[in-house]
Structure prediction request, 694 residues.
Amino acid sequence: MAGTGKAHLRRSDSVVLSVEDLVVEYRLKGSGDRVHAVSGISLDVLAGETLGLVGESGCGKSTTARAVLGLPRPTSGSVRFDDVEVTTLSEREMRRFRPKAQMVFQDPIASLNPRRTVEDVVAEPSRIVASGTRAERREKVRTVLREVGLDPDVMGSRRARQLSGGQCQRLSIARALVLDPDVLICDEPVSALDVSVQAQVLNLLGDLSQKRRLSMLFISHDLAVVKNVSDRVIVMYLGKICETARPDPLYARPAHPYTAGLLGAIPVPDPGIDPRGRRTVQGEPPSPINPPSGCRFRTRCPFAQKICADEEPEIREIDDNHYVACHFPLTHAAAA
Amino acid sequence: MTRDGSRGTASSAEPERLLEVTDLQLRLNSPRGPVYAVDGLTLTLDRGVTLGLVGESGSGKSMTCKAIMGLISDRRGTITGSVRYDGTDLTRLPLERRKELWGTELAMVNQDAGTALNPVLSVGCQLTEGLRWHLKLSKREARDRAIELLTHVGIPEPKRRLGQYPHELSGGMRQRVNIAIALSCGPSLLLADEPTTALDVTVQAQILDLLADLQDEHRMTMILVSHDLGVVAGRTDFTAVMYGGRIVEIAPTKDLFAAPRMPYTRALLASMPRLTAPSHTRLRATPGAPPDLTKRVPGCRFAPRCAFARDRCRSEEPPLVDETGSGHLFSCWYPDSGTPEETGATLATSGQTLKEDA
Prediction:
């Protein structure tokens, strides 16, 4: 996994967000060890497209999302929105750019001030940006609330602490949408929700992306959720990209041993399938302080050879729009 | 569970009743008034059987485990009903007697492997505590047994681990330690409360396999609590679905997944995104939110969110009954309401496409 490389980037006029060679590292206090959180990620998102970033904890998916917004700025690499490089913008210029990309966080309750009213929460971004008159802003708030399924007449004056988890997440989405961003970055937006409520929010996000032609970067550890919402999926492991493709072929014919193992580990709600007979991944991920040489997955990979330790695999196309970073990708027969 | 002869693979000989919970009620004290966390739960479990307990947050799964274990202090809440374990009603035992049973008869593995361990005590210290207390082993014997236990749950370099502290271990390793502690005194009933929820999927699969192996080996009875229907599907003999503090459906796992009868179970299955469904399959969301357990309303608890609720559902609570005598119990006045398409039972084939594949 490894791999670095940009073979999977598209040269299209409709690329809204493009990230190249993104590296995020930080030093641990005390020991001074360097944590390699993200090590050379490249990705692009087209207008109206949802890109899913999936992987286990510590793979760098959330760090990637935050670095895209400059929270904090990446150690190196380039992030371009509509061809404007944002990593070198000054704080003031960054402020002007921020309305274009908004974020929805994992914990719907903790990401809202419990004492603010629903309307206040949604009105705040436009107050900061100071666009339009007060009446216009209020009308906009009410429209967005309706769009996410919260009735402004009923809910508008309630406080965030009076809302359920699902309602809080709708409110977070409304707050992110009120400035009409081009890109919505969702970091585990449904992980804290129960399945019945999760389905409501996933359907809502799907509707919004279609209606608004919104580009989304959707981060989740849940492969089923990512498949449901994404037009394209990137599988990450220990700060690197393993594999990227459209969801249906990716899930049907995973080429990277890690993707296959991850899919095999997911519990399936079908009692006819014996979970003990499935291909999974053994062991636990190594530390990002001292990642393995070559392919970062090699320490857990059942097919690892000498070359995997010596040489980092480059991302290459193995099928139409299906890219993998592996020296020995699975053939379709073996993956089945 | 179940009162007739149909049970899972685990019991080959004459089944032996291990646990019998009758009309269990747990009322928790809270600043907002009493919370009816478990509200009339009845359940029986034979030796060697694995029961999956599923439901959304607040449905009472964890509280059921805690009430069975007897971990609710009088200050925290009130328990009524009975929990008969091997013939003894645990709810009537004084704390001292219950303590003797913890670890030796009933043991629990908690969701959060990190906080379940004491951060300032070494792994060895926490692992040998039960061995020395319950089994009266000497220091040396306990240490040797602890090494065996750690080896058994798949922890490499067990000797070195004894001197380590929880923060030095990964989440998966911590959960293995918790399992080793839970099993150290050979309990007959293991309550595994979301044992893998905090773990990554690849580690989750390893821990669930480990639990299954250990259970086979010790012929342990297990209640596996999860919010994830996928976790219980392949690993339990019976599955009980909880909603609003009650069991609303319970059946042999295969039957429950093949033919769920209660609309809530169907809604739960239909709202899960599936790996097998094409991308952008429209999910069947259930409107509304789970009930507020501080309020007791007449009728079926799911009625306010149920697409098929009628007047009777809102006034009279449906009992949990075995209508067909097949060991499939559910509480619903109008089971199988609507066509399969409407209830989402066949969602894999009925998916609508949200947007064109780009």
